[in-house]
Write a structure and sequence with these properties.
About 60% of the residues lie in helices and about 10% in strands. A 3-stranded antiparallel beta sheet has the order 1-3-2. It is elongated. The chain is mostly helical and about 120 residues long.
């Protein structure tokens, strides 16, 4: 348990938003408070998980200092969730743009091909 957060709470917090293995890797990192970056793959299970955690903002790498190696640190649960939601929001905005563009193309196609002796296959619309 870290700062009042239990393992089940972490999984519930991220359920459906990230794959289960990502939530488990974050939970493991949170439980230990971080680890040297060169040991992160062992702790979370795979180098891909380390990349996903940092890419989503669920963890960050503290640069090395003259006396300490680089460390992989978990973000606080609320900040980790904020990072995940920001990524979802960006994907949603891109998908919305594609949907609007697709609707415009459909309207153009119907205007161009709708009255031409049914040359546009209706089963595709």
């Amino acid at each position: 348990m870290v700062a009042g957060i239990e393992a089940g709470d972490v999984r519930e917090l991220f359920e459906g938003l990230v794959p289960a293995e990502v939530a488990e890797a974050y939970d493991q990192l949170l439980a230990t408070g971080g680890c040297p970056k060169d040991q992160a793959e062992e702790l979370v299970g795979a180098s891909e998980l380390v990349a996903v955690l940092t890419g989503l903002g669920m963890a960050h790498v503290r640069p090395p200092s003259p006396v300490d190696p680089a460390w992989l640190r978990p973000a606080a649960p609320d900040l980790a969730l904020q990072g995940v939601l920001a990524g979802r929001q960006n994907r949603l905005a891109k998908d919305t743009e594609l949907l609007v563009d697709g609707q415009r193309r459909l309207a153009d196609a119907q205007a161009r091909f709708g009255g031409m002796n049914r040359s546009f296959p209706e089963h595709l619309v």
